[in-house]
Specification:
This protein has 302 residues and is of the alpha+beta class. It contains 5 helices and 14 strands.
């Protein structure tokens, strides 16, 4: 891997300029702050894999960004690919220390809340969360001409623009975030994918977006740690539920062991699990699995 601090003259895509590493460091690395190191590489397989391999020697707050990922990973061994400099592909190393390990499961959900809040400010786009780790935006219909009125649901198709992957590494956790920023419709990897640009973002400047997400992550992580990892006391549980597009929908949970469960998503419990109300009147928490939205405000499968 070669750090991107060097000359950028080899880049010719003016619509997708390389990140300005010195500027990012000046804006994010400060005494007493969470972020302690930030590197950008031109290309790598997976920023999560790179940080996890170095976990034993890492300082909390290490950030690794890739201009391009060639083997990006999502949950359930899914791949994540996108053209170089078309998105944000980065991982951070966090070491919650005294926070009870059983509460660390909230970290990917915390990252989702932080990313949604950071993007709302920096990109001007409403981002919803699909449990447990997807970032969703609405792609306006061609027929849309008016803003939704009070109490109305925005029209348009809800699609995935980003994802989060958290992995234990050494004494901490590596959290990776992949976000489609400037992808055009013909560059999307799947019909269910989206980008911030297609969702009407007011800014697709990746430095602005990265600073916004990392600052939001620092704030939420600080609140969660100060509450000893208590999601309710820190406000994290309430914030996640408020942003979660899965709640209130009928979903199908594809669980480990090839078990399937269908029901209405009614709550996020104190452990970050999705609670489903099934047809027999029972409520069952789901801690891991693939969730398919069967019915939503706009209809269709997601």
């Amino acid at each position: 891997m070669t750090p991107s601090d060097a000359s950028h003259s080899r880049w010719s895509d003016l619509d997708r300029p390389p990140l300005n590493v010195p500027a990012l460091r000046r804006g994010l690395l400060r005494p007493g702050g969470l972020w302690t190191a930030l590197d950008v590489v031109d290309s790598t397989g997976s920023t999560n894999s790179d940080l996890a391999a170095r976990a034993a020697g890492l300082t909390e707050g290490t950030v690794l960004v890739a201009e391009e990922q060639t083997a990006g990973r999502g949950r359930l061994d899914r791949t994540w690919t996108a053209p170089a400099r078309s998105g944000l592909f980065f991982s951070v190393y966090l070491a919650p220390g005294a926070v009870p390990v059983q509460r660390w499961g909230w970290l990917p959900l915390l990252a989702g809340v932080a990313a949604a809040a950071g993007l709302a400010k920096s990109a001007g786009v409403d981002v919803a969360l699909k449990w447990p780790n997807d970032l969703l935006v609405r792609i306006p219909d061609d027929s849309d001409s008016d803003e939704p009125g009070p109490g109305e649901t925005p029209s348009g198709e809800e699609r995935k623009t980003g994802g989060i992957l958290a992995e234990r590494a050494g004494d901490g956790v590596v959290i990776g975030i992949g976000l489609n920023v400037s992808l055009r419709a013909d560059e999307l990897p799947a019909p269910t994918a989206a980008s911030l640009a297609l969702a009407g973002a007011v800014s697709t400047d990746r430095e602005t977006l990265l600073r916004g997400v990392l600052r939001s992550l620092e704030q939420w992580y600080g609140r969660w740690r100060a509450a000893d990892g208590d999601a309710a006391a820190s406000g994290l549980q309430e914030a996640y539920a408020a942003a979660c597009a899965t709640l209130g929908r009928t979903v199908r949970a594809q669980l480990p062991g090839e078990r399937t469960l269908t029901g209405e998503a009614v709550a996020i419990d104190g452990d970050g699990r999705l609670v489903l109300s099934t047809g027999d009147g029972l409520q069952e928490p789901v801690s891991a699995g693939d969730i398919v939205h069967l019915r939503g405000a706009g209809g269709g499968l997601t």
